[in-house]
Amino acid sequence: MSIYLDNSATTRPCDSAVEAMMHAMREDFYNPSALYAAAMGPEKMMKSCREKILRSVHAKGGSRVVFLSGGTEADNLAILGQQKKCRGQKVFYSAGEHPAVKEACQAMEEAEAVAIPYTREGLVDVQALEQMLDERTALICIMQVNNETGTIQPLQEIGQLIRRLCPKAHFHVDGVQGYLRVPFDMQAVGADSYALSGHKIHGPKGIGALVMGPGVQLHPRQVGGGQENTIRSGTENTVGIAGLSAAIDAFPKEHTMQQVKMHLYEGLKEIIPGLSVNGPAPDAAYAAPHILNVSLPPVRSETMLHALEGKKIYVGIGSACSSHKQKVSPVLRAMHVDQAAAESALRFSFCPENTIEEMNAVLEAVKGQYALLSRFQRR
Amino acid sequence: MRQLLMVRYGEIYLKGLNRPYFMKALVKRVREATREYKANVWLHDARIFVSDMTDADACMERVRKVFGVHSVCPAIEMEKDDFDAICVEAEKMMRTVNGTFKVEARRSDKRYFMDSPMINRNIGEYVLERNEDHLSVDVHKPEHILSVEIRDKAYLYCQVYMAVGGMPVGTGGKAALLLSGGIDSPVAGYMIAKRGVQLISVHYHSFPYTSEQAKEKVLDLGRILSQYCCGMKTYVVPFTEIQMEIHEKCPEDYTTLIMRRYMMRIAEKIAEKEGALALITGESIGQVASQTMEALQTTNEVVKMPVFRPLIGFDKADIIDYAKKIGTYETSSLPYEDCCTVFTPKHPATKPKMAKILEGEEKLDQDALIEKAVNEAEIILL
Fold first, then answer.
1. Where are the domains of chain B?
2. What is the ipTM, given to two decimal places?
3. Which of B342, B346, B347 to mutate against chain A (most A CBs within 10 Å)?
4. pLDDT (tens digit, 9 = 90+) per residue, B156-174?
5. Strands A64-68 and B47-51
6. Is A302 on the interface with B (CB under 8 A)?
């Protein structure tokens, strides 16, 4: 049996999502725009999924949900859909944003894209941001949870800043790594848009959604048949939406990810003398329950990754060296993690099904591999 | 009348009494290469013919990669008795061609009612009369040659596609190639295989320092090579333990050289097992520290077999051009993880002292390490 601890990369679709998709393919395959009664099935299913999403993020009345192909498209639409509005203005993104956000901000024509620095724990530096925001700010993009370090960003605090210093600016939250695993209240935060993705919560790949607050206007990035209120043309991916909807229902309200994570962390601390955490302390209130990023010097990230792969344990890494060129993750660089730690960073990311027993097996494997591999360092 | 490929051979022509042996080998190789197109392949009148293939263009491309083939011509085969029909087909063939041309007839059937100059004149006239606006005759330096061969049937062709040349694989013995994921070794293997040598390859895999993906990349390179050399048995040798031992027990600046000496020894063991008579490497003088003349001397002396280094005098740029030509460059330059840098010395010895090498190697259980690596090698047929 393998142990899968790379849930921030993608998750295994849950049974109910798979079944819902089978049903959507075999029975309810109709085009939701069709006029006959049979097409009501997919239409109703989509409507219920939209309502479910709105409730799950505590969206204000009048908010809308646009279905699209995933997190990247959701972020792209939220950002590049405001090109006109942002002309001659400033666009902010946090230094550790996912490329889907960062690249989109930098691709804005005639807008000044500015990165907001991180603290050593990977938090958005709110004090610095306060100095940066002004009337010329049109858009601020902050991720709910950092995908590499699991840092939960102080969105409420940032939202207050925005309301005080640039109330007209649009506040976009990339919730791909946070949705359902970390509570989110769109009204309390004061976010104008929120992006989420199906395959990070045990739904299928190829489906995501963008929640738009009331009054938010976005320019379509894809034109055609005018689906999704003309914001996103193309026949709706009803199979993906059915899977997403079932995955939302199936995601447990109560789970033990935090305990599982702490168990692994405490165990690793005992095995590895030089262990360091990249991101917040694992027991901090702003540490997400499902991500643990640690460095195991002197063993290089990918060496340990492959060694664990040999034991059927799958994890992620913070940096990858490709043909002799070391590429340190921009997130870790933004946090000023030193080179040796960055080169040996591993990301364990959990799902609600992971168990303490699994963590014991992982600890045993890490212990053995670390003892072997740490003997070999470049001299 | 039918379309077929006329396959012409090159260097085999120089063979004397041995020629039938080489011809038979070449026919076999062409037959293997065209099997997936369900083609008919036969030898007749010192020509190899390929017909009835499912995909003519793809089949021709495949034949052009068979070592021993000099060139390939898409030709029309028809009855030779109806000369008017031959003229009609010749004219059709030249309709889409612009510039100067001549007809070049060859008559192996000496009883044919026209001799070659007559055939040239008659067909030339027929073609020219109907295409005067875009064709003219130049018998000395024509841009196009319309060939007409009168054998038991008549064959017409005007396009010649050059092939790879060389000698049919299998006629030149067997050798073991040390194959890495880089640019050089596939080119070295190609060059030797082109001389008719059957290849096996040996790859050293350092999991977990190199990944499964990196191994797959090497196998992809092997697959490209195997298209030319009619299949290649590949040994993937687990090498991590040996690297670890060397790293722990040998002087730092000598680790790469000692590692390479182990690679040579293991390759020779595998070659012996497979009945191969030589080793092939992609080394080129001075390219890296382990390829200085002094270093090559130390890695050469651990094996008895001849070591072929076809790239020894090539510049990197030339090797890259060659790799592009044979289609391995793109795969070779794909990025792949390689954490073996853990084992590479900061300052590798470029003028190694044999005494230091031997001193380091003494601390290793050489026979046991090599035997284990050979026995645990994964064998893959590409």
1. 2-162, 174-381
2. 0.78
3. B342
4. 999 999 999 999 999 999 9
5. unpaired
6. yes
